[in-house]
Amino acid sequence: MAAVKTEPELEENHDENEENLEAEEVDVDPNSTEISKKKKKKKKKKKAVSNDEVAERPVENGTTEHPEIIENIEIAEGEGDKKKKRRNRKKGGGNKGSNQTDPPAIPIVELFPDQIFPEGEIMEYPKGKDDRSAKDRFATEEKRALDRMQKDIYNEVRLAAEAHRQTRHYMQKWIKPGMTMIEICEELEKTARKLIAENGLKAGLAFPTGCSRNHCAAHYTPNAGDPTVLEYDDVTKIDFGTHINGRIIDCAFTLTFNPKYDKLVEAVRDATNTGIKAAGIDVQLNEIGSAIQEVMESYEVELDGKTYPVKSIRNLNGHSIAPYRIHAGKTVPIVKGGEATVMEENEFYAIETFGSTGRGMVHDDMDCSHYMKNFDMSYVPLRLQSSKQLLNLINKNFGTLAFCKRWLDRVGATKYQMALKDLCDKGIVDAYPPLCDIKGCYTAQFEHTIMLRPTCKEVVSRGDDY
C-alpha cells in the first residue's frame, strides 16, 4: 500500500535524521498495408532506422524492443562489418498509448496487439565495493540469460505500469478544485479498471486510491458519505496501485494548484529520485535512507512569509513488494539509521519518500478506511456468521490485497461494521488508519516501483510526468 509505518520503539533511533522522448507513432491499419509501406519508404529517404526494423532487432537482454518504447538508437560503423548500437536512458513507457481515447477507455492489452509492453526507465546499478558497475552485469551472458527467464514476469509488471501511467496522465488533467474526494477517487478507479481490464484477482486495482491532504500523509480514502472537497490550497498525495496476477505497481505523486508549494514538491521528487539512484543489488537499505534524508533536508519552503525546513517523515518507509503482497518484509528508510539489510537480485521495491513542514513524524488519526487481510495469518475459527460471510467475500474479491469500505459497498456487502471489527480484533484483517503529522503542516509524497533485474535496474512505473 502507500507506506510502511515503523514501530514506535524504532522511531527513537532516528532522532538524528533526509525525456521521455515520445516515440514517433506510426499507426498501421492491419487492413491497409499500403499506408504502412508508404511510411516506411518515407523513412528510408531520410536514412533513418524505421520502427519496423528496430522492432525486429533483439536487444541486449534477449528480448525484442517495441517501437513505442525506443527513445534513441544510434548506429555506428565498427570493426569489419559489425555495427554497434548504443541505447540512451529511457524515461518511461508509452504514456499516451497508440490509439487511446480521451478519456482513456481502451484496455492496454488492446493497444499493444503483440502483447509486448513498454519498458520503464533503464538504469545502471551503482558501483559496488569492488568498483564494478552494472556494465559488467550487462555484459555477462549468465545475467542476460537470467533476465530472459523472467521476461513474462517483467511483461506483466510493465502492463500494470502502463495502465497506471495512462490513468494518472488523464487524472492529472481532470482533477480540479471544488471536486469531492469521492468523485475524484471513483473517476480514477473507474478509469484504471478499464485500462487494466479488471478480471477478478487476475487483474485489477492493488489497493484503494489514497488522496491524503495537507497534514495527512498517507492511507486516507473517503468512506461513503464523506463530503470532503478538494481546495485550491490543498497539497494532495494521489497514491494508487494496479496489478496483473498479483504483480503490483505502487506509484504516487503529489498534486498542487498553488505554486507556493513548488519547493516542497521539488524536494520530495528529488529525494525519491535520489533513493531510486542509490538502490541496487547488494546495496544496504540504511545507505539509501541516508542519501534520501541528505537531499530532502537540504530544501526549505517559504509559506505565507515564514520559512520551513523540509523534513523526512522518519517513521514512514518504502518497502519490498511480492506477488499479492504489497509490504513484503523489507523496509526502505528515508532517514539515516535502520538496518543494514541488503537488496537482492530479482526483488521489487516501492521507493517512496515523504517530506513535511511539520514534525516529520506521523500518527494514526481520523476514520479508518484502508484494510488488508493478514498475509501470514493461519486459520482462526469464527463464531459470528456475519464474520464468516464477510471473510468469504474478502477472500473472493480482494484476497491479500488491500481494500476499503467503499469497495466493500461496491461488491454488495451490507451492515458489515461489526463483522469487520471482529476480523480485525482476531488479527485476520489489519486496519490501516490515515497517517498524519501535526495539523497545519503540509506533507508531500512521490513513489515509484523498481525491478532489480540481473542486468540492470528498471524504474518500471516511470513516465514523462515524474
TrEMBL record:
Positions bound to a divalent metal cation 2: 250, 319, 352, 447
Cofactor note: Binds 2 divalent metal cations per subunit. Has a high-affinity and a low affinity metal-binding site. The true nature of the physiological cofactor is under debate. The enzyme is active with cobalt, zinc, manganese or divalent iron ions. Most likely, methionine aminopeptidases function as mononuclear Fe(2+)-metalloproteases under physiological conditions, and the catalytically relevant metal-binding site has been assigned to the histidine-containing high-affinity site.
Name of the protein in its database record: Methionine aminopeptidase 2
SUPFAM superfamilies (UniProt xref): Creatinase/aminopeptidase, Winged helix' DNA-binding domain
Keywords assigned by UniProt, alphabetized: Aminopeptidase, Cytoplasm, Hydrolase, Metal-binding, Protease
Residue ranges of every copy of the Peptidase M24 domain listed in the record: 157-353
HAMAP family cross-referenced by the UniProt entry: MetAP_2_euk
